[in-house]
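Teaching note: in complex prediction, the entire set of molecules is handled at once rather than each chain in isolation. The prompt given to students was simply: 'Predict the structure of this complex.' The entities are:
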Amino acid sequence: MLDQDHIEEVREIGPDLREAIAAGDAERISALLDPLPYSDALRELLALSPVERDGVLELVPAELAAELIEEAPDEMAADLVERLEPERAAEILEELDSDVQADVIGEMDADDAEAVLSEMDAQDAADVRRLAAYEDNTAGGLMMAEVFRFSDKDTVGKVLRTFASEEDDFERYRGQHPYIVNEAGEPTGVVSLRGLLTAKRSAHLTDIMVRPMTVPVDMPLERLEDIFDEHPFLGIPVVDTDGLLVGVVSRSAVAEAVLERSESESLKRQGVVGDELRSMPTWLRSRRRLAWLSANIVLNIIAASVISAYEETLAAVIALAVFLPMVSDMSGCSGNQAVGVTMRELSLGLVRPMDALRVWFKEISVGVINGIALGLLIGIVAWIWKGNPALGLVIGAALALNTMLAVSIGGVVPLLLKRLGQDPAAASGPLLTTVTDMAGFFFVLSFATLMMPWLI
Amino acid sequence: MLDQDHIEEVREIGPDLREAIAAGDAERISALLDPLPYSDALRELLALSPVERDGVLELVPAELAAELIEEAPDEMAADLVERLEPERAAEILEELDSDVQADVIGEMDADDAEAVLSEMDAQDAADVRRLAAYEDNTAGGLMMAEVFRFSDKDTVGKVLRTFASEEDDFERYRGQHPYIVNEAGEPTGVVSLRGLLTAKRSAHLTDIMVRPMTVPVDMPLERLEDIFDEHPFLGIPVVDTDGLLVGVVSRSAVAEAVLERSESESLKRQGVVGDELRSMPTWLRSRRRLAWLSANIVLNIIAASVISAYEETLAAVIALAVFLPMVSDMSGCSGNQAVGVTMRELSLGLVRPMDALRVWFKEISVGVINGIALGLLIGIVAWIWKGNPALGLVIGAALALNTMLAVSIGGVVPLLLKRLGQDPAAASGPLLTTVTDMAGFFFVLSFATLMMPWLI
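The expected output is the structure of the full assembly:
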């Protein structure tokens, strides 16, 4: 019901929006987009032509433009910003936190990025350059440069005055606690809310602070996940190799990165490497998909060579050709289920590469049951359909065996790939289907060759 | 490098842990598990036999046991808790927030759940019963019952004294702001940190409060995502149909639910409906996987009937059988790439069911390029391999056409399923492969029938 209403509502805005853009009516555009959730407003923006999009981003207040840019995935955000005049692009980006600025600018062409950076506040631009240099999915790549920072000479009163005065800036710290930094720039303390609320205004921060937990810039996402899991902090200070405070990584930045990693892995398992969006250029989308498909077609040809080796058997019992794709597809599906569960357990941290044997035991027990069930089913179908019990036996036995093989491979291969330092998300599927295709064809055709007297 | 170290470290703990459990040495067990990240500690626990697991959960301090339970996915957590004595289970659960309690107890058998609830604090048990009644992935299902709640008669001083005193309870509110509730129980205000820090202690909360944003108990996860996207709040009060304050939904609970939904959809796309973990009973895992596979095998049989209809053509040109599985597999892969991108854009909110036509235009442009590229590739391979240019033409043309069909279906079907109120994650794949299998077989075999004079 809600969804339906939503669709109607969205449908109505498009023409009005185009009219307002054509008329250069900035207020009307804002009035149309402002009441929408950002995700809906972004979709409206994307439904426009590129020139109309530029119009919207140039005309609306910088804050609204910044929200739309932040809502978009990074690559798309970079595409949108690149098309604007550098002054306007800088104005919009200045509304965003430094971590988002760095993500968007990091996706831009080097020349465009430089043009925008040179229009930004010098300090902000320096922060962005610094942040953009860190690896994605490390503390450095996820942190923001804005730190709610005080000196070890400051008092509680100073913090309270800051709360009272710097209204805008305070928003930027996303609920950070005040961090105390010594003259060298090392974080030496953090002050709790309770400390602030219950201490005298004249108290020195050093009297009520505790030693802060810190993480190094190169700490990987997996460890950050563990740390935020175990501690209630909303943010953790990040230090460089000299122990100096360089930023703060927030709980929400880590949560967002984990979600993105999960969705990106899920795409890769479907054969889409690189986080494709349909707003990307056709040639790029096509090239990325083809790269994966071309590797896959080579594997397919290898598997098909098994069929080719048994052409005589096939020629004698042409009905086998009806069942070959079925056996290979069903085994692939069974194996993919096992891949899915292993990938989930890997991402939940419930299995490690060394657990391959334990995983195999768990898979083969399901594989035996499902193999027998599916083998019986397809065997009976083949028998009745083609009126030949021997054919049913050949097909049924082949599917049963191949199902057991497929779940074994599907369960274990992602762990082995991980152990070898390969990416299990992109490679498990093609490896699995190649082996199960070859084995499936081999089982059907070699069993048929053995049973030939009863088949013809 | 880090990963390798990690593996070594984990490998060492197992035997020591078993020894400590056998000796009933609670301190030793805690000393072994406490220094580990919770995810590693949970994996160690799962590597033990069920009886050993019970031993660990009975012997370690309730806080540590609670952390392990919280780290586990809900179904697994319920299995672990069900095996314990109700008194101990209640003691462990009392360490957790009400939303986690409700999730775990919601997964337990009704009898076990009752036994545990009757051992819990009466107020907590009532909260859990109330929370467990709400739908998953709604504000009610995601909220916690603990509210940092004050009356509209209270002063700033009262809040500050609460901060100073209720050390333990305060942790539970996960950074909530103080909410002001009138006598009827309606939330009438919220007080900002800045307000608290800058007001006099004698000031009434009603003087510095602002009207709070609230959400209804039945607000779905998608809307909550939008709201937390647009507002910096760490929590939002949840009201029932009478407008009474019944709980607070936190930013982190929403982020976690979004991640779980994403992983659960990704599993479903691989044919695993229900969030399988290998710790579940074999018959349950087998039955859930078989349900999906059985539906799939029926679709496979329908597709195979196309081959069966062309057995004469196949008998005449047996080499066709080598390429049939290849055409169907490659088209399935191309289509799945399109499914993956549509699912991603749906979850990012970039497309809506009504955008099917726009999506199709974007897909067919990639489909034409990739279809021609793959068709040429496989056509040349077939020509060279079997020495027949006409065979190359048949196979190449069939794959090219079927690739265009597959990306069209793959891109659009998830949107249509969504529009029909169906679940695109579980159903898109089987629907796609059935149609592309049928069409692929039909293209190859009907083209071959037309080209027969040049093929034999």
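Point out the following to students. Chain A touches chain B through 126 residues (CB under 8 Å). Residues 149-269 of chain A form a domain with the CBS-domain fold (CATH 3.10.580.10).
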